[in-house]
Request: fold
Amino acid sequence: MMQTLESILAEHPFFKGLDPDYLELVTGCASNVRFDAGTYIFREGEEASQFYLIREGKVALEIYAAQHGSITIETIEAGEVLGWSWIFPPYRWHFSGRVFEPTRAIALDGKCLRTKGEVDHDLGYELMKRVAQIMMERLQATRIRLLDMYGDNPGGRL
Amino acid sequence: MTSTLPDPMLPQLYRVQHVRREIPDTFTLELEPKDGGEIPPFATGQFNMLYVFGVGEIPISISGDPAKRRPLVHTTRAVGTVSRTMSELKPDDVIGVRGPFGSHWPIKQAEGKDVVIAAGGIGLAPLRSVMYHVSSQREKYGKTVLLYGARTPADILYRRELENWRAHFDLEVYVTVDRVTDLWRGSVGVVTQLIPRAPFDPKNTIAMVCGPELMMRFTIVELEKRGVALENIYLSMERNMKCAIGMCGHCQYGPNFVCKDGPVFQYSQIQALLAKWEV
Reply:
């Protein structure tokens, strides 16, 4: 049986437990997308009009540095969320998103969601809480990486 | 009455059969008894005291397959005087070995359950014996997941074995690195980020964790968030072990001696100690 967009969204960890009425509203901003390996979903500096719930595959967040080429910051994989630049002005990507492995995802229109969140602040708050959770988890992971746990000198103390 | 048990303080002579450079600062020693005798049986997670004559003695986990006792296998990093000298040993050199000592991983308790093996850096070495055991007796275990984090792709230990395990249909192997080089197409991020991705039933899981203490602390937080009961989490502690039989007190950790009561502890046994600044 084919899954509906709404049921796919309901199963994704990002929207798990969301009120069914809100889920219906959110579904109106969603579409199914696929990306081939090697393609860029977005590039640094472009307008961040969407974000993605990854269902399958692997996407690398990259930054380009002259003389170093593309540097992978982190990979985003199944069950995870790609992008939060859609929620904060100036709505531009800070990194590029390059597909490492063929990826299936649900794309969510950022402007559509922002508008619905402004009209219904309960929905807006719910979205903010979920995005904040992702940001907190990424911040914690970044802090752990800063510790350089496997190096000879964890934390950089001399 | 005289005892027939060997003196645990008396090193047995072993000949270096092979030294393998795993990654730039990490090597594996394969040892055989100099007299051709038996190698004592060991349990997963136990360690030996390896003595480089004239230099010193250090504890190193046994990283070989418990079902294949020959040769005796240890992997370690060359970080101190003894381990650096050890890394320069050549085949036919002779070293002293005492052991095996200490507690072991809960492979019996894990039977019938999902098994999560979380390793960071050199912490994969004390867990390799668990992978050997579980992969050879798959029918006894549920889903088996290896989560491994390394600093960079060049620091990934036992790369060939990781690839072999990953090729098994009934083992899940997730590898991530903190920092990358150009050619890496695997996961990038800390090992804790692998925990939400991994397929296991947290209510029926035994987790075995080994790595730097910081890595283990953060890993435990994520395992707990996922719903693994604290009494089902085990970790291997590293302390300054000297006598290895709980006599000298060098490795005292609260009420425990890591050499005798550990190195493998149930997390709930040492939970209060892990958060303390000085123990």
